[in-house]
Amino acid sequence: MPSAEAPSLRGRSVRPTPARAPASERYERSHLSPPRRAAPQRIEPAAAARYEDTTVHDDPAYPDTAYPDPDPAYSDAGPDEARPDAIGTPDGQDGTDDLIVAAPAPEPDEHPERRPAAIARRRRRRIGVAVVLVVMLAVIAGVGYWGAQKAGLLDSRKDYSNAAGTADVLVHVPDDSSIKQIGGILVDDDVVGSVRAFVDAADGASLSSGYYKLRTQVPAAVAVKMMTNPDSANRVGRIVVPPGTPLDTKRDTSGRVTPGILEMIADQSGVEVNGRRLGVTQQQLEEAAAKAGVAELGVPAWARDAVTALDGDHRRIEGLIAPGTWEDIDPHDNPTEILSSLITTSARKYEGWGLLSHNESGLSSYQTLVAASLLQGEVQPEDYPKVARVILNRLAKGQRLEFDSTANYTANIVDLNLHDDALKANTPWNTYVQKGLPPTPIGAVEEPALEAMEQPADGNWLYFVTVDSKGTTLFTDDFDQHRRNINTACENKFITCR
After folding, report:
1. pTM for the predicted model, two decimal places
2. Mean pLDDT value across the chain
3. Is 248 in contact with 214 (CB distance < 8 Å)?
4. Own/partner pairs for 302-309, CB < 8 Å, 24+ apart?
């Protein structure tokens, strides 16, 4: 029987234990527990034989008591803890047991299929990091560029030197454009060399929206002069319509000519660009006004019946173009498109002035616009509400209005002192001959006149006359008093009395 004394473990002593674990437990500890990973070691053939001998635990020659428990420091190691596999074998030379450390085989990769996936994941992570870095650099560069641009550090200062330029170009400046935005438009159209040059040349000048005929490749200062000179022919498509202006051009007794709206449009939209004529003629506008459909012309619903009733007469759209400054009549548009744009915008103006929402005249919307147009040709704005009441009182009585302004509307010569031929002219607009309101307004209606007609003054007046050049107007409901007021006007030589 081998001695129960614990063998030497190559320099490491193993403490003896009072009791010995069963052979099956020792077997499990020495062989079934996961081996500690170690570098492979060479095992001599003899040692290998001894290793095989010592693993046979059921040999009667080796009872359980011959193997004391191993060092407690190693006995309870779990499956995931490393410990050496030591097997004691008898040594025939010195009577001691040699400790042979078996070099465990490398553990097989339980999931070899995961290795490509792990590599792919690492590759994706590297790509992701690279993308993030690129994006961050792009953002930083963009912010830096934006800041430099806002500070004007990157602005070109290019400017042309030939004041004559090289060619014509029609430039459009939209509403509410800033000086810098206008500079960008001019750069795009090759008028100026750079935005910075134009902004510097403009020096805070105010520029209107609309169309300009300019020259390409001119100095910025020249471009600014072209766009700001009020007498310049470079402004295109801009008209100024005073209140009361009719569609047709008028001439008074002094020979003064007052252009009508249609002539204004034709003059200001007509432009020659590099030998090509743009714009429309007055005759083309009259034809469109007379013959185009009401929908094509942009006539609002509240005026369509009255306009349709005068098909064939260009004056059917009279009064539907509001007074004011029209900045951007497009020379590229045809006559119907130009009129439609003006009429549509004017209708919105009239409606914004209360025509549909604050009208207490008792008249229809269109009739109210017609009546309002009469005020402007008769008295000063402060007397508009009173004349509005005179109109309503006379209409209520079935009395002719007998307004000089309606007779002058169709007269060849506008005259403050109307003669019999004008007073007796049998036209639909002459209220000396016709009862009721004219079929259309007699000119462009301004806001105060329309508001006065919508909210007329209270009174029983039937007559009025302006008696001096200051615009003093006398009102009465008595005809005899009215005749006396007329004499006052004659005495003041404001009118000629027969």
Report:
1. 0.69
2. 82
3. no
4. 302/355, 302/356, 302/364, 302/365, 302/366, 303/347, 303/365, 303/366, 303/369, 305/366, 306/366, 306/439, 306/440, 309/439
